[in-house]
Amino acid sequence: MLEQLQEIFRKVFGNPHLIITPSTSAKDIKLWDSLMHIELIAAVEEAFSINFSFNEVMEFNNVDDLLRVIEKKKKQ
């Protein structure tokens, strides 16, 4: 799932060489501001056919947090 998420990050941030890890956060990616965060969340929701609540989005501190919620939602 990390590989699929990495492709989404590459597309959203326009960087085909971007490498993410579970600990990657907004401070690690120069272009990751509040607007890009919204674009990223929308792209993740579309790719995985899920929807995040406002509270879930506000609790994402890094890629690992995002992965955990995606996994949880995919099991529902």
Key traits:
mainly alpha; single chain; 59% helix
Order of helices and strands: HHHH
The helix fraction, in percent, is 55-70%
Gyration radius, to the nearest Å? 11 Å
Globular, elongated, flat, extended or rod-shaped: what is the shape? globular
SSE class? mainly alpha
**What is the distance, rounded to the nearest whole angstrom, between the alpha carbons of the first and last residues?**
16 Å
Count the E strands. 0
Biggest sheet descriptor: none
Blueprint of the fold:
Elements lengths: L1 H12 L20 H15 L5 H5 L4 H13 L1
Helix pairs in contact: 1-2
Task: Write up this protein.
With 76 residues, the protein is an all-alpha fold. Helix content is 59%, strand content 0%. It has helices at 2-13, 34-48, 54-58, 63-75. Helix 1 (2-13) crosses helix 2. The longest helix has 15 residues, at 34-48.
Summarize the model shown.
This protein has four helices and no strands.
